[in-house]
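quick one, 392 residues, struct below
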Amino acid sequence: MATIRLQDVTKVYSTRDNPISNVMPGNITSPELQAQKIHALDHLNLVVPDGKTLTVVGPSGCGKSTLLRVIAGLITDYTGHVFYDDQDMKEVAPKDRYIGMIFQNYALYPHFYGKGNLKFNFIVRQSPDAEAEERIRTTSELMGIGFKELLKRKPGTLSGGQQQRVAIARALVRMPKLMLCDEPLSNLDAKLRTQTRVEIKRLLQRFQITTLYVTHDQVEAIALGDEIAIMREGIIIQKGTYRELYEQPTNAFVAGFLGTPPMNLLEGIVDEGFLYVGDTRVLLPQKVANQVHNGQALQLGIHPEDAAPLGNGGFRHNDRQVMLRLQGIVEVIEPDFARHRQIIYVRTGDYTYSVQIPQDRVLNIGYKIELGFPAEALYFFDKITEERLGVK
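---
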């Protein structure tokens, strides 16, 4: 295994000569746009500890797949350094990096049986048959019940979940130092995705392989990752456990990206120690008040689950002081029976925000509701820089 370390890595594409231009909106016709430089990775620094799984999430086009390709050695024209432990991998070919890769589209050899897919790397490296057979046998046992039957079939006769099991086994049979996963479960239906996610988690724990796992699915990221990295425009914005990122976001982007639903961000203006959000006035904590000035635009952040309905039948946050009160109209109700909750979308003036409340509270569309939020549940962000205030 190995600790993976990226130091000041930058990868720049030109829309003139790179296929990335094909995904940009509209037709690029002017010479200026054709020569535009796109920083897929922008002075990126990242560490994946030995034996740990780091999941990477971020919006489309933020550079997640480019990050994997640089680490794998499939992209070499970058600046900066990629280290496996203390070895700079700049001149090391992909075949010599002992990487296991799992892709979204499985990437199995269609004319080989399952066993042939697992054995192919040993054939290329001219490894002894005895070694290959022993590795395949051991890996098959670890892959669980029914896997050996898949080795007797070609990929075209397998379901999507079965193909992905073979692809995972093909990556593991090499005993890689590093596992790179590029949205491997996105082609599976919900049930198979859950089953395969559990299987991947079990295998990663069993083998303790250093793993970088790219996904759009936050449930996957939380379930599989020892840590999560939030990526935006070629930069790692914040890295940590899910609880750290959710409770202590470093900026408004992280706060508004993570969570289902994510944090609400309401815009307001500072005036004499208060933040005015529409007709609502919020007293700024002293730490925040010391960092702002009159007329400054801020964003008020509130997690959906921190709301407490007030008034008749309502409740306070275990007698915590209510700092913010919002009155609004219920516009949408989304039941979530599995978690014994409901997500409601409330309109207050020009703002619509999401709120999580207990399932047994009876509400209807158009219902007027008053919500309270305790002081410790309020987050404040600079509107321009997106920096979180009051934490220094």
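Residues 101 and 180 are 5 Å apart (CA to CA).
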